[in-house]
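user: Kindly work through both lines:
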Amino acid sequence: MSHVVVVGSSYAGIAAALELRAKLPDSDKITVVSASEDYLFYPSLIWIVQGERELSDISFPIRPVLEKAGVSFISSRMDVIDAENKTISLQNGQVLPYDKLLIATGGVWQWGTIPGLGPKPNGHTISILSPWAAEQARADWQALLANPGPVVIGVAPKASLYGAAYEFALNLDVALRKADVREQAPIVFVTPEPYLGHFGHDGIGNSRHILEEAFVNRGIAYVTEAQIDHIEADKVVLGNRQQHLPSKFTMIVPPHRGIEPVCAVPNLGDEDGRIPVDDYYRSIHYPDIFAAGAAVQVTPKVSTLLPCGVFVPGSVSSEMGRVTAVNLAADLGHGTHKIKPPTDIKSLYVLDSGGHGLLMSLGPQSWLNVQVNIPGPWSHWAKVITEKYQMWQIQEGRI
């Protein structure tokens, strides 16, 4: 009997665990370890800030889903990976032996990379990247509505979650207009990208044209190749341009790195804690450790003036989890290996602004690269439908 441990219960982790259960015999045990008891649909956190969603609307307990599928679940944080003895130690004191380990934890946000970056009380920005931070940001949003002023939204160098920043800026524009205070709240978007819609991919089809047009039409100013020097309570300072951008409401997406247990294992992660893998998503140095999703080292294919991370949508992370599971099962003697690097995975992303949006499809064949500007509220409803459908899929164990 083999024991496979999957660490992480978001897109890649859940997809991998359910695929493994389908591929491996019942005698093999699969255990998912996660610091959270709940599955959270992260793309909808942008709506928590403005009160359009509650956390209960975009999350649900993950244990019943996994146990129904025949997968064990432990709610605890992983503290240590002992790659030589093939065990992991958990925060709750448990030590789990494994035959194969799959790391699908994503990463941790690097708030300390820029002085003043991060939620209060340690920084001067709001965050839409965790449930508690998004809820905390509601008070700042209400304060902005009561006393409007300049807004700065953007992405820090080396960060990769561009979609959340673009969506948040466009949604703020709509919400401020509804509150009839948009003229008192100018919005500036800052990004290390050489142009809007670069996404670390040198653009996705005509994403540059669509986003630049959207920002111009909405009156959102933008600064590309922006190196943020530091952030104060009332301004964002760009070091490379000697600009001081006044701001009463600031949201900057930080870079993220691999989790500490990965960083602590020699040669498991790179300098940013991302795991270099072979064609089968197997660690280069540890053949019994696999990785999927944002835990994997994805190297930009193009060079830029400032470091830009590579945007990896949730749909790509899920497929990475499934492919990794197929290869892990093959290593255990069940099925055949499959080669499908992240760049060969078709992704679909709906960027919603509340009033209009952008449907982006990216794939290995040129005919799969489709970008459509969607006028009116249809993109918002497409995003809502995507949220409901994906959550239903996971709850039914059909991901």
About this structure: The longest strand covers residues 29-34. Residues 314-331 form the longest helix (18 residues).
